[in-house]
Amino acid sequence: MNFNYFDNLYINSHAKELAKVNNSGGDFIENVYMWHTSLIDDPPYVSLAIFFNYCSLDCVTCCNRLLLSGSGGTTPFHLSDIDKYKDQIDSTTIVGGEPFIQDLTNIRNILQHTKDLGLRTNALTNGLHLWESEVRELWPLIDHINLHVTEEFLALGLYEKVDELPFEVDLNIICRSDNMPFVIDCFGLLEGDKFFIKKDFMCGGRKFIPTKI
Ligand code: SF4
Predict the structure, then answer these.
(1) 97 CB within 6 A, ligand 1
(2) What is this structure's pTM?
(3) How many angstroms separate the alpha carbon of residue 191 from the centre of ligand 1?
(4) Please, are residues 73 and 29 in contact by the beta-carbon 8 Å criterion?
(5) Residues contacting 166, CB < 8 A, separation 6+
(6) Ligand 1: which of 61, 95, 145 to mutate, most ligand atoms within 8 Å of CB?
(7) For residue 174, is it within any domain?
(8) How many separate domains does the chain show?
(9) Tens of pLDDT along the chain (213 residues)?
(10) Rounded to an integer, what distance in angstroms lies between the CA atom of residue 33 and that of residue 67?
């Protein structure tokens, strides 16, 4: 693959420390910025989207800037809140920020509780952490992910491993006027019919990546 963004990658190696909480394994889930029912996070399903603070990336296309720094605070969320919505939703979606840098006991509990209710599980993720051993243990509990394809994801060679994932994967490229070269690169690099271009709707970010086209 003739694709090299290594000189300009930005990965926040402290993101897990920022996101770390001391989970007691109980009903309360820490570090949730907000949560609500959603028609856009797991289309065409109605989903309960649970947004966590902090991310290991800092994309120019990010529309959730408050989550990256955790400066937006938290909203109380409990596993039992899923029960209250179980007749209105088809799935839960863990999103951020980055869900797979969180306390994985929390993530496991959400996924397992969702499955126990007979609902579908979905994640919006940058994909960087999916092959880490603790996250691999969660694979059987995941039905679907929307994977935000970034320069970092491609440069780390993770796209070549997507076929290993035992659940449904949709690939999403966020399109903005200032990252069109990357989007055009992706047209030539990504295969399949599960590749979506999404239009960003908010400004933000500091990371500008020169592309090689
Ligand atoms: S767009 Fe997604 S992967 Fe990128 S910084 Fe925002 S939350 Fe993280």
Answers:
(1) yes
(2) 0.89
(3) 22
(4) no
(5) 139, 140
(6) 61
(7) yes
(8) 1
(9) 445 555 567 788 888 889 988 776 789 999 999 999 999 889 899 999 999 999 999 887 787 888 888 888 999 999 999 999 999 999 999 998 899 999 999 999 999 999 999 999 999 999 999 999 999 999 999 999 999 988 889 888 899 999 999 999 988 888 777 677 788 888 778 876 666 776 554 444 444 444 433
(10) 7
